[in-house]
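@channel sequence for tomorrow's demo:
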Amino acid sequence: MQFALLGLLIVLLIGFFVVVWKASSDWRWYNIVAVCFIMLLVMIFLFPTAGVLQSRQAWHKIKEDLERRIEDVREENRTLKYGDATDPSAGEGALELDRKLLKIGIETGRRWRNLRMQNVANNQVVLVDQTALAAAGVPGDPNAPAEPAAAADGVLVPEQSVVYGFAEEAVALPGQTNQVPLPTFYLGEFRVVSSTATQVTIAPLTQLEPIQLQAINNQPASWSLYELLPLDSHLPFLAEGSLPSDENFLGRVNEDLIRRLLEGRVTDDTLNEYLRDGGSRDSNDPELTKWTMIEFIEDYQIQVDSPDQPGILEGGFFDGSGRALDSRLKRAEADNGVVRFKKTDRIVVKIEAANQIIDQGVAEIRNEYFVRPLNDYRYVLRRIRQTLDEVRERTAEFEREKVILDKAIARTVAMIGTNQVIRDKLEQDLTQFTAEAKAVTDYADKLQKGREEMRAEMSRLHRENIALEKRLAEIQLTIQRRMDAVTVAP
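structure tokens (generated this afternoon):
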């Protein structure tokens, strides 16, 4: 291309000289000089103009690349800010994450992490903020980091507030090389006695359990204090980057993390619930854990917002039919509190709700899942404390009954010993009585036999006496007759 342009310029230059030569007979000298000067200027400025055009082309290309990059950056910024609805792997946007973080922050309250136990005395625990100590550095060190800003009102934790203490343990989270301190053991409920900008003194609000006292005496590496008890959730136990699937609608659980955090600290049944969370359901699972995926075969809508407007002093998030009362739970007013489902839409609901929708003939079952019930630790700990108190009362009652039972057993043993002696004597008496009874029986049999023999003999004698009496009567009668015959007169 360059050689073609150069050839074209040479041809034009030759043509210029030919034209000037042909017109020299009619032009004046100044015309010829002017035309040659103009041609010379054109030839001189032709190369800078070409350079400018080439530079302009390069800058135009750079401009197009920058505009394309700006558009990509804007798209990336939009995706980072709002997320990408078409690509679930891109994750949620910053605004949605900020909203969730704000919601979690509101529901979980304030937290004070990385506290080191300095002293335990008079049923009080002194904790020091390790972050503040590390930031303070070595006195006089010019390279030491700046001191952190003081806490509100110059205190680390507001005094007289109630906080929940946890022992922290360094755990390596998935995708991170550094270990992160996480709360792994509940140490109890405490009241803040005093507080400064770098340390806080707390006292147990209720009697601590022996296992909690043992954990405190073992001096855990660090403490964390929570204004509210942490919320239970399914998301922290999911593997990084896992997506919902037909086998597990929550996503694949992080088995290594669950076993590292819970194995040996909970029962096997509880550990199995965390490992199976969101997976397939068994026929023996409790009703509370049964969730069902249904697919709508017809368009369907359901009213989820309650028309009632509760007062400020009236509590509760839902009305008697399960519709939302709290404004934070209600849908947009444009929807009039109605959720609409189209045909082929799929949702996962509890088995009771699934059965109600299926009974209306608008949906069919597609899959069944096991979902671990979330724990409300406020009620769980209260229930555990009540159970422990009841166990203590029952234990004390059993101990009292055991003392009474031991005394009764001792008396019973003594009575058994005494009765054993009596039994031995009775056995001897029984043996003697048996022998005497046998002798009496033998003697009675002998008497009975003699009696029978005597009766037989008496019966024989009686018969003989009767025969003799009969014979005597006959003899007497004969004698009487003879005497009458002798004495009768002639």
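heads up for whoever presents: The longest strand covers residues 179-195.
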